[in-house]
Specification:
With 269 residues, the protein is mainly α. Helices cover 55% and strands 9% of the residues. The protein contains 11 helices and 6 strands.
Length: 269
């Protein structure tokens, strides 16, 4: 309710809270239908530029006008970043695939997570939806977008939501096209103007790696803990985003080797 009020006050399209009874856990919300952005893009991929322009503009509004609101959100701090990445090592590599890591693997993983934490915390901080992707954007009859599933919002790195949108776990686009969309979005972002585009893109892609590790771990946890095994079908796509960065960022080479040589083959068994 707090996040919904904050987003609505910024003029962002979120469900209206018509009535509420927090003590009993009841809410009456406006009905946004059942057509997600993912469903629209599956049916009409030619609309992607238009829809991503709209989705990106909502992020600009959130970041440009939401500084005071962001200060009311929990921090996306080091502890949370590390807990999220541990989902990959604990749930996917450990619980699901039973991969054994050597001492060298453990040291490489520790060094990698240190780098990814630093990458996140070096960025300008802003309000972050934290799950801004094609299943959490609803499409109305006029092709307007509505934002849902924002209850885990935090104050964190400014590239987090845009990389969640453009390197979506559920719909994939060529990496060059993604980079072009990202640069266009940075061109309209005051938070991006204080550093080079090369730095912004580095932050963008490495923040994506942190998110992709988290998502792959969550998909494994959803299977083992909740019986939602279909989410494991999205793990290869999610980790392929990381593998596609080979040669771009040296600190990822151990992780890419792990994914390509051990994790993806094990998933096929």
């Amino acid at each position: 309710l707090h996040v919904a009020r904050g987003l609505a006050a910024l003029g962002l399209p979120v469900p209206e809270v018509i009535a509420e009874d927090p003590a009993q856990g009841f809410l009456l919300l406006s009905d946004l239908g059942n057509r997600s952005l993912l469903a629209l893009l599956d049916d009409e991929p030619g609309l992607v530029d238009t829809m991503y322009d709209t989705a990106g503009s909502w992020l600009h509004r959130l970041q440009d006008s939401g500084e005071a609101f962001s200060q009311t959100l929990p921090p996306y701090d080091e502890a949370l970043l590390r807990r999220e990445m541990a989902l990959f090592s604990d749930w996917l590599c450990g619980r699901h695939l039973s991969l054994e890591w050597s001492g060298d693997d453990e040291r490489a993983w520790s060094a990698l997570t240190d780098r990814l934490v630093d990458n996140a915390l070096q960025q300008p901080m802003t309000a972050v939806h934290r799950d801004y992707h094609s299943r959490n954007l609803m499409v109305d009859d006029e092709l307007g977008l509505w934002i849902i599933d924002f209850q885990d919002a935090v104050r964190g790195p400014f590239t987090y939501d845009i990389v969640s949108l453009l390197r979506d776990c559920y719909v994939e686009w060529p990496i060059d096209r993604v980079a072009d969309w990202a640069v266009r979005w940075f061109d309209d972002s005051p938070l991006a103007a204080t550093q080079s585009q090369a730095q912004n893109l580095r932050w963008f892609f490495l923040t994506g790696v942190q998110r992709q590790l988290k998502a792959a771990g969550i998909f494994a946890r959803l299977g083992h803990r909740d019986g939602k095994w279909h989410f494991l079908e999205d793990v290869p796509r999610t980790l392929a985003y990381v593998a596609a960065l080979r040669g771009e960022y040296p600190e990822l080479e151990w992780l890419i080797d792990l994914i390509e040589q051990r994790v993806l083959p094990a998933l096929k068994r």
